Amino acid sequence: MLYLRNGAVDLGYGCGILLQSVLLILVITGADLPDAGSNLVLVGYFLTSLFVRLSVFLNCTLGVCRSINIVSPFYHVRKAWITAATATYALFWTTIIAFDIYSFVSKRIFRIDLYISKATSLKAEVGWSVLNSISYQTAALNGVNSVILFFVPFVLPALLCLVLMFLQVYHLKKSTGTTSNRPAITILIVT
């Protein structure tokens, strides 16, 4: 189930990047984009911003479930809990990204080339509008906000996955005498 969800999210991310690549080529070549092009930029920004975060979250969830299964092989992880956590995380980021898009469009600071280039990179700073609306921006706060917007959705899950990997290696090494853990070792090596 998690592998299927992760694959679907990565496919959505790829579609967003493909859409943005086509639009970026049109902007670079100087083609005039109609208003529909602006909407496509918003769709591409939404897809890439949401799906890259969901992909990291689902990979982290997959690492947690694998660690639980390795440490306690007879414990059954409930699919409903994973689905609820994924839906909550997706709804959280959808709300923040929608607020960002609303802020871009309502403040009339929409520039297609800037929007595409920010959305194409991982440093799209999703959530900037929320942080701008609740705090007064100074140079120090702006730096802290950028760290928070990158650290929470990307660095924390990566660190958690690293710790989980060491936990998996420890428990698999401890039980190296049996043949039942060979598939788990192979999956750990491949991933």
Give structural notes:
The chain has 191 residues and is mostly helical. It has helices at 2-28, 35-71, 79-106, 112-120, 128-134, 139-174, 182-190. Helix 2 (35-71) runs antiparallel to helix 3. It is elongated. The model has no long low-confidence stretch (mean pLDDT 75).
Determine the fraction of residues in helical runs and give it as a percent range: over 70%
Whole-angstrom Rg: 20 Å
The proportion of strand residues reads: under 5%
Distance between the termini: 17 Å
Structural class: mainly alpha
Shape: elongated
Low-confidence stretches: none
Name the helix and strand elements from N-terminus to C-terminus, one letter apiece: HHHHHHH
Please report the number of helical segments.
Answer: 7
Mean pLDDT: 75
Write the layout of secondary structure elements.
Blueprint: H1 2-28, H2 35-71, H3 79-106, H4 112-120, H5 128-134, H6 139-174, H7 182-190
Helix pairs in contact: 1-2, 1-4, 2-3, 2-4, 2-6
Name the descriptors.
80% helix, 7 helices, mainly alpha, 191 residues, single chain
What would you say about this model in short?
The protein has 191 residues and is mainly alpha-helical.
